[in-house]
Amino acid sequence: MKRTAILFATLFCFYSTWAAEPEGKAVKPNILFIYVDDLGYEGVGSYGGLDFSTPNIDRMASEGVRFSRTYASGVCTPSRVSMHTGLYSTRHRQTGVLPVHKGTDKIVNFNKMATYAQLMRAAGYRTAVTGKWQLATLEIHPDHPRNAGFDSWCLWQIWKTNPETGKGEKTTRYWHPTFNLDGNVREDIADRFGPDVLVDYVIQKMKEATEANEPFLIVHNEMMPHFPMVKTPDDLAASPPRPADLTNMVHYMDKLVQRLLDAVDELGISDHTYVIFMADNGTEEVYFKNPQAGQEDEKPHTRHTTAGRVNGGKHTVTDAGTHVPMIWWGPDAIPQGAVCDDLVDVVDIFPTFCELGGAQIPETIPLDGNSIVPQIHGQPGKSHAFTHGVSSGKKAVFDGQWRLKGTGALVDARNLPLEPLADESLPEAQAARIRLQEIMESLQAPVGP
Q1: Is residue 12 part of a domain?
Q2: C-alpha to C-alpha distance for 281 and 82, rounded to whole angstroms
Q3: Higher confidence at residue 8 or residue 153?
Q4: pTM
Q5: Which residues, other chains included, contact 393 with Cβ-Cβ below 8 Å and sequence gap of 6+?
Q6: 182 lies in a domain?
Q7: Cβ burial 254-276 (10 Å sphere, 16+ → b, else e)
Q8: What pLDDT score does 295 carry?
Q9: Which residue, among 406, 400, 401, has the nearest Cα to 428 in the 3D structure?
């Protein structure tokens, strides 16, 4: 057994569920997708990160498979739309942050773009989503999560009308959170820490699906460690209380991952439940201050890894802004401690989840992603020839060694985390420019709705 032994009563409960399946019917796997907000690869110890404590995420890597080269866009909305639709931004056309925090009536229209949640719901999955939803203003578009494919949700309602003033205002996600539960704003969580509330919801949804003997797909949009920096419950309980900072928020987020892994074990479903840890974009580096930083650091918000120093982050299309962690944990079919170095993109989530869940993808649905099911199980699979990311007017294509930005700058990314401008007197750099320029031009014309 690669997990800690589970109590006999829990095992018996699972056996009863398994035995209830009709003979010859395969058990569809559960999927719990932990999708965190603003954490680059360097924020995780198993990726060589030296500044943050992530023992439970590292446990996932030691018991599962870690994808070392996973990429996304450099800011939330385009990255998240690509995650839901399997499309690059040139198809879905979201290139910056949708201003839900200002009460916009604009939406990401999932009635015109298919999502994997829609297909998996049709294939018999219970679907739920939590946390950040910077894809529509829920007060204006109350059915948006359902249109995206989710039966149930507990989402941060970022914009809400103040009944005393009649004016809309941005709400909070951490302390005194404003969460929308299946269409209604919760009134029972005023004194609670928002991320704790969301984990409770996820565990409850896993229990309900398990008791109903139905597979679940839960997209848990963990809101941490996004700005603002706040004191976590552990910071407040410490003596003396600790300051609010990014390292403490990352550590508390890691503790919440432990709660979810423990719940999967306690429910007796780890042998058919895939748990995925991933981030939407790089770290918001300006909020990281390392008191041990030496004079050799280029900036006060330098992060440190075993491979070198990382500068920059969110809002860029550099490696620091687009290189994110992705770890798969769960069934014994996942090899322990494996590392996959294939070039992977956030658009791969759509076809991968659908293949795992047996949800057929109609040929009429365009996709830019590849299924990575083989790699998850330790087998050779398809790797991207390039990845594509955007961030509020910036764009880049990256082939694993060279990065061409929309500005025309060619970056030598052969020795990451170093990202110097390429020496274009080199034949290999000249060839890279020609190759990546052709890719960039092929991505220019918008496709889709």
Answers
A1: no
A2: 12
A3: 153
A4: 0.93
A5: 95, 96
A6: yes
A7: bbbbeebbebbbbbbbbbbbbbb
A8: 67
A9: 401
Q: What domain count does the chain have?
A: 1
Convert the pLDDT of each residue in 259-316 to its tens digit.
Answer: 999 999 999 999 999 999 999 999 999 888 876 666 678 788 999 999 999 999 999 9
User: What's the mean pLDDT in 98-108?
Assistant: 97
What span, in angstroms and rounded, lies between the C-alpha atoms of 269 and 138?
33
Q: Is the pLDDT of residue 23 over 60?
A: no
Q: What is the pLDDT of residues 402-448, one digit of tens each?
A: 999 999 999 999 999 999 999 999 999 999 999 999 999 999 755 44
Question: How far apart (Å, rounded) are the C-alpha atoms in residues 367 and 205?
Answer: 29
Write the single-letter amino acid at 160. Answer: K
Lookup: tokens for 359: 């949800």
Residue 315 domain-assigned (yes or no)? yes
Structure tokens at 256: 């919440």
**Distance set, CA 55 to CA 191, 304, 396 (Å):** 28, 17, 33
Contacts of 265 (CB under 8 A, 6+ apart): 3, 4, 6, 10
Residue 416 domain-assigned (yes or no): no
Among residues 65, 127, 70, which one has the least CA distance to residue 328? 65
The number of residues in the chain equals 449
Kindly report the average pLDDT of the chain as a whole number.
92
Exposure of 438 in the CB half-sphere (CA atoms within 13 A): 7
Range of the domain at 358: 28-380
pLDDT at position 292 is 65
pLDDT reading at 15 higher than 90: no
Other Cβ atoms within 10 Å of 158 Cβ, number: 23
CATH of the domain at 80: 3.40.720.10
- Alpha-carbon distance 80 to 144, whole Å? 15
User: Which tokens is 288 given?
Assistant: 């990281």
